[in-house]
Amino acid sequence: MKSSLMGHVLAGGVLATSGCQVVGIKAALPPEPLPDSPIIDMHCHISGVGDDGSGCYINPRLMESWKAGPYLRAYGISRKILERDGDQAVVKQLVEWVRASKHVDGVVVLALDMTLTSAGEFDRERTEIYVPNEFVATICKRFDCLHYGASVNPMRSDALERLEQAKRDGAVLIKLLPAIQHIRLDDARFIPYFQKLAELDLPLLTHTGAERSFSSADHDAGDPVALRLALDQGVTVIAAHMATTGSVDGERFMDRLLPLFQECPNLYADISSLTQVNKLGYLNEILSRHPEVHDRLLYGSDYPLINTLLTSPWYFPGNLSPGQMWRLSRTRNPWDQDVQLKQALGVPASVFSRPAKLLGLSLAEK
Ligand SMILES: [Zn+2]
Fold it and tell me: Which residues surround ligand 1, an ion (CB under 5 A)?
């Protein structure tokens, strides 16, 4: 919304060449101008180490792995800054970038609940990342451009009360990541949880597809067929990443998700992470071959991953001209580059404006 014209100019189509092959694919759909209504990124992560009392936790296994450095850089900080300024350094940089973005008006910041032991306690060994609701709710109250995405592990004995609390605190959705929370969404014990989500009108954003961002994960938990239980309870379900990557019994997770859109009008999917190098081809496939789902797609970034080498305009020589890729690579703001890249690849304008509408966010409200 902030400045839709620039992206339109940038997205002008040019025949692409790749090596000696003339590809001529361009975008899957011709680029559209960005919408005049607000653009909200409904899939934005945050994390912290909790040294400043934020309550955040990162498993030492992950903190000591090679992934820690790129993650910190993606958040725009270093270990030194983190030690000096605490987790608020991550918040400060996030807010700076969102405010400076020409295109994005706000982001839904996602809490991430812990893995629980069989006794219902914090499983520090199996929890990869814990981002408490209180931490995210507090920063969302402080900054207009941040919207609260809560997370409540359905295995908690007080899960239903926590959902109510999240709603009272202004949560616009509930986020789950079954592969690292060690839960399966087709567990019949979760029916009251899903009924509560439907009653509170809280959409469920849940990871679908394989999960590669952590030190260990239960990939089968990303099977979208498991969403059926929540959908049948009337929950608005958002399949994060459109179940790209991963398969079961030789059938791609995405192919298991697609038929559900016909059957369930309450099913949506986000396009976060679909420009990552490990998912090349999926966005093109969805845009060119599955027009029937376009009115269910939501814009999301998967920040901070948009700020790592996992994504780059240079990965699209079959879709974009060298000039387009160069101009996009010069766009320094992570959200502006993400929006402009997805727009250039043919993501329809309505996908960018849909999160604000679905989540009932109007800028005047905050
Ligand atoms: Zn994510």
Answer: 302
